[in-house]
Amino acid sequence: MRWFVPLLYPFSLLYDLGTRLRNRMFDVGLKKSIEFSIPTIVVGNLSMGGTGKTPFVELLIRLFSEKYQICTLSRGYGRTTKGFILANKNATASQIGDEPFQIYSKFGDKINVAVGEERILAIPEIIAQKPETEVVILDDAFQHRYVKGDLNIMLTTYQKPFFEDKVVPLGTLREAKVGARRAGVIIVTKCPSDMANDSKRRLSLEIKKNNPQVKVIFAGLKYGNPIDIGYSSKINFQNVILVSGIADNSLFKKEVKKQYQVVKEFTFSDHHHYKINDVKKIVEFMKDWPDSVILTTEKDAVKLKAPIFREYLEEIAIFALPIEVNLSEEDLLWLEKSVSKVIKDKGYIREI
């Protein structure tokens, strides 16, 4: 134990008491949760981040974008703007946030993407501006209890499940683990491909101590082939320079090192706003490794593609490593049926 840890206990206790009081006020009706006529699917977690929310939202988009008119909604963490914004072809990562921009870049021809700090104001804006919308997916809104979701999907990682964590600043939980009782389904993310059934049973038992009736699903990650996002035609994956600014890059690094020779790692904080000096440092290092390529995450790629960096990176080979959530066929079918049932049971009639 580090010497300063005992000093954090009073702050963690105060934060815990504050969030418990807030949740209690919602539970008894002193604070109001608004239920909208349009179906709402909430995706979130109890921790500060790094559970794989964006890949899971992308999974939902792949599952349902052919059946329903979808709009995703998040606060747009880290953006330089405020208020409600509906993404369009002129949107940038700095305007709407890196994760919403990643989703828009990949699915903007199939769905709508919106950001807004106050979801109870943003949802009516979505309905007004995009009346064809049939379902709203709220990204990172598990603690945003002013909106009553029709299905609350909570994510927690295999590496650090919520029941082994502590409330900030002692740990990474935004609220006490009892908050898991609001979830309709809990997804254990980033599971190893060879996860034993005994481990699944143990985790399920621990999870259900906080929510006995909840459905528990175990999800892994699958990595695609690197996608060229650069301006150079030079391709040599013998030597790789890793660039990442995500909450937890440990699995990303592990996957890359299984396949490539990593000669340098540039690690930044989550939602890092890249500056010209950051890019210059990377380019300067690459002078000693002229045959190397930059390999980064999709989340970082959308920021590195900004026009401001083009003159520095136009001779550089840059690739993004895509990731997707990997579910068993049985769990995928359960998820598809459950979400479809929630949407159909709502009986929403589009306002067109």
Q: Topology, pairings included?
A:
Layout: H1 5-28, E1 40-45, H2 53-64, E2 70-74, E3 85-86, H3 93-96, H4 98-107, E4 112-115, H5 119-129, E5 135-139, E6 151-157, E7 185-189, H6 197-208, E8 215-218, E9 220-223, E10 227-228, E11 239-244, H7 250-259, E12 261-267, H8 276-286, E13 293-297, H9 298-304, H10 310-313, E14 318-321, E15 323-326, H11 329-346
Parallel strand pairs: 1-5, 1-6, 2-4, 2-5, 6-7, 7-8, 11-12, 11-13, 13-14
Antiparallel strand pairs: 3-4, 9-15, 10-14
Helix pairs in contact: 4-9
Helix content: 25-40%
Radius of gyration: 21 Å
Number of strands: 15
What separation lies between the terminal Cα atoms? 60 Å
Structural class designation? alpha/beta
Query: How many H/I helical runs?
Result: 11
Overall spatial form: globular
Query: For the record, what CATH class of the largest domain applies?
Result: Alpha Beta
How many domains would you count in the coordinates?
2
List segments where confidence is low: pLDDT < 50 over at least 5 consecutive residues: none
Percentage of residues in DSSP E strands: 15-25%
Oligomerization status of the protein chains: single chain
If you average the pLDDT, what whole number results? 92
CATH architecture of the largest domain: 3-Layer(aba) Sandwich
- Largest β sheet strand count, sense and barrel closure: 8 strands, mixed
The fold-level CATH name of the largest domain is Rossmann fold
The sequence of SSEs as H and E is: HEHEEHHEHEEEHEEEEHEHEHHEEH
CATH H-tier superfamily of the largest domain: P-loop containing nucleotide triphosphate hydrolases
Q: For the largest beta sheet, what order do the strands appear in spatially?
A: 3-4-2-5-1-6-7-8
